[in-house]
Here is the input.
Amino acid sequence: MDTAGQAPVIRVRGLKKSYKDVQVLRGVDFDVARGSIFALLGSNGAGKTTVVKILATLLKADAGAAAVNGFDVATQAARVRESFSLTGQFAAVDEILTGRENLVLVAKLRHVKDPGAVAEELLKRFSLADSSVRKVSGYSGGMRRRLDIAMSLIGNPPVIFLDEPTAGLDPQARLEVWEAVRELASHGTTVLLTTQTLGEAEQLAGRIAILHGGRIIVNGTLEELRALLPPAKVEYVEKQPTLEDVFLAVVGAEK
Here is the structure.
């Protein structure tokens, strides 16, 4: 999708947040282009969830500014909440209902027209149609997360926040969720993904920002981040640096 010349759908400037004497965010800045997947990568406790909570109007920043879909999170919170869906680290699905019933219930709560048709379209889109009449208690971890993401799309929000969406999943389930995230972006949804999994950011994101020590220390495409390291030595095969190489190099340099 060509986003040249478009205003960023998420804009963060100078974001600061402290909990008592602990400074979690020390001036965070980044933009997210419309229709892109942007990964906020950092170790456990780096402040990724704090950034998401501020953008989702669940937490007030101590300083700085942020906007989602053109609306200021501090002064236009109601408009911001109309612009996004949030999927946390654990699937928010009702296990005693079927997959279809979960989707229909959310569609009714959001006053969407023709909840049944909306549910059917999402079940097909996320490869859950064959399991639609099974109770969610019998779903695999990957199926539950795909259903959770599908539920977050009801009402067509332009922005999705995915806070460590594959936490605790096995490799096969993780691959299923990755495919669901790619599906979001292919339909024009803007995705802000937080993760501490290097491979996840490398596989999914068009741009990656590394959050460390309360600040964004690098921000760019995978190729731009690789360029931060010395050129690969050529012997028999050229080995391109992985995102893990970049992460360890830039985080180590900050210590």
